[in-house]
Backbone:
């Protein structure tokens, strides 16, 4: 089997390359490489996510789940300089690229991490993700079951999925899996992609304790 962008340590030569892309309404120069997701451009799904998800809060902790070289994390950091943006991936080369790109753009609020490096007490005001559908359904579901419960109350996650790669079945799974205290809906459709919104609502009010 060939190497995938979700390999933890790509063995192919990196072949670093520079390119100019539009992020958060401005043109910036970034570094990409072989062995990561979409090294030649901001892929169409990520573009749909960035164009259709609402502006993130001004501050708090944000999560870019499956960050690649960083277009979502960098956009969030540019838009919300007072937030902490956790850029999560299994691919060490991707995390190194996010680190390089954040430094080059003067962004000190981006934290490229693997899953075990996210502190247990961090909850997220926002999640943005172009999730790695090709890892397989069971791995994808485990990933979402791990991180969606880390949403803060009254906070949202936006996930972009190609329609012909199972976006509608994923929406049904999200609705069934996150039924108590959450809501899932289709937020947008564009260019063959769906943007799914998962909202975590507040805890239900606690019944008053009766005293004798």
Residues:
């Amino acid at each position: 089997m060939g190497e995938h962008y979700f390999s933890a340590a790509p063995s192919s030569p990196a072949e670093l390359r520079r390119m100019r892309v539009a992020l958060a309404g401005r043109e910036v120069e970034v570094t990409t490489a072989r062995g990561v997701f979409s090294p030649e451009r901001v892929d169409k799904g990520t573009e749909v996510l960035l164009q259709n998800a609402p502006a993130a809060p001004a501050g708090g902790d944000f999560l870019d789940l499956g960050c690649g070289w960083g277009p979502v994390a960098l956009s969030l950091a540019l838009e919300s300089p007072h937030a902490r943006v956790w850029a999560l991936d299994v691919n060490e080369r991707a995390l190194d690229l996010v680190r390089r790109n954040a430094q080059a753009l003067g962004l000190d609020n981006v934290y490229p991490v693997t899953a075990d490096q996210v502190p247990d007490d961090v909850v997220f005001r926002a999640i943005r993700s172009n999730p790695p559908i090709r890892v397989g359904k069971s791995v994808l579901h485990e990933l979402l079951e791990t991180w969606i419960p880390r949403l803060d109350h009254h906070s949202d996650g936006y996930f972009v999925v190609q329609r012909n790669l199972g976006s509608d079945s994923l929406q049904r799974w999200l609705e069934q899996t996150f039924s108590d205290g959450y809501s899932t809906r289709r937020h947008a459709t564009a260019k063959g992609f769906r943007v799914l919104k998962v909202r975590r609502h507040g805890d239900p009010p606690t019944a008053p304790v009766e005293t004798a």
Q: What stands out?
A: DSSP finds five helices and nine strands in the chain. Residues 1-5 have pLDDT under 50 and may be disordered.
